[in-house]
Amino acid sequence: MDSITIKDVAKLCGVGVSTVSRAINNHPDINEETKNMILQVIREQNYIPNNSARNLKRSVSRTIVVLIKGIDNPFFSAMIKIFGEEIQNRRYSFLLHRVDSGENEVDVAMEVIKEKKPKGIIFLGGCFSNSQEKLEQLDIPFVLSTIASGQMDQNWFSSICVDDMAESYKMVSYLCGQGHKKIGILAATPGDESIGRLRLLGYRKALLDHNITPDPSWIFYSDEDIECYTMGNGYRQMQKVMASGQDLTALFAVSDSVAIGACKAVFDNGKSVPGDYSIAGFDGLDIARYYNPAITTIRQPVEEMALATIKLLFDMIRNKALNQQKVFFGELVVGQSTREV
Predict the structure, then answer these.
(1) N or C end of the chain: which has fewer CB within 10 A?
(2) Along the chain (341 residues), what's the average pLDDT of each consecutive run of 10 residues?
């Protein structure tokens, strides 16, 4: 070959161009055996990395980007505050970038990488289900925070989250233990593949394990064209519950905001919580504690999760960590919005 290119090296090795780039730059997200094989081919073929590419690498800014999907979800506010403080404490810049519901996070990330040249990315919220080929396009460290990762190979990403299915199971089991036999759920959209799906699975499994057959008419989905995790959505969903004629005694809402909106709908219809309906939430928002009645909820360890996200990302940036998944436990907090029947 007169002048071998990075594409030629990738073809000889049977890998993608981004994988070759990771080997050259000693990126942590690459198998050691694969990296050694690529470097051996590079030596044999006398490949010299393009100088402009090296200069581009040097021009990477000291910026961490947080890509957020579901910016209306108040649960993310505390995490974003901690992200900003911790990133700035490390003398990096912090950039928050919104991802719309119909956009693919990796596509958005690629555009941000081209424009901002960040050192790392945090994906916050939404669903994340991408192929290995798609993930290989991301040649900088990234961490998924509070995101359901679908069926992806865990070797290709790092994540910080709670076990949404297990924690939802815990909440619905509590309601069953309070004597409720007809428990509905204020769910995410029917096509949700992220935390909404996991919380629905936890709800169903808890009912089955308590010898209650889940009735499809007990599931009240969010509309596709609105934000799921808001008080306004909870209000609309609870109006549907009361209009349905279902004699439910308890509702599990997929977030505290939804639960609070549902309570308001109950009050506006001349009924009471927990007298007519026991309503439970998920997240552990401050407002859930100060609302009247205080919401029975699953409290997520927000501060610990946010700090773990930042630590893992910077460890990866400094080549001190490989991809890993950390799962935190939630805490069942009993408020005044549920009662025994």
Answers:
(1) N
(2) 74 85 78 86 76 49 90 88 95 92 84 91 80 76 82 74 96 98 96 88 98 97 88 97 96 97 98 98 96 97 96 92 89 98 92
Q: Is the peptide bond before 293 cis (omega within 30 degrees of 0)?
A: yes
Write the DSSP string, 136-177.
Answer: TT--S-EEEES-B-TT--GGG-EEEEE-HHHHHHHHHHHHHH
Q: Are 63 and 93 in contact (CB under 8 A)?
A: yes
Residue 93, helix vs strand vs coil:
strand
Dist. CA 144–CA 136, nearest whole Å: 15
Q: Give yes or no for a contact between 263 and 276, defined as CB atoms under 8 angstroms apart.
A: no
Length of the chain: 341
Give the separation between CA 161 and CA 302, rounded to whole angstroms. 10
Task: Report how far residue 252's alpha carbon sits from residue 168's, in angstroms, rounded to the nearest whole number.
Answer: 9
Whether the ω angle into residue 190 lies within 30 degrees of 0, i.e. cis, is: no
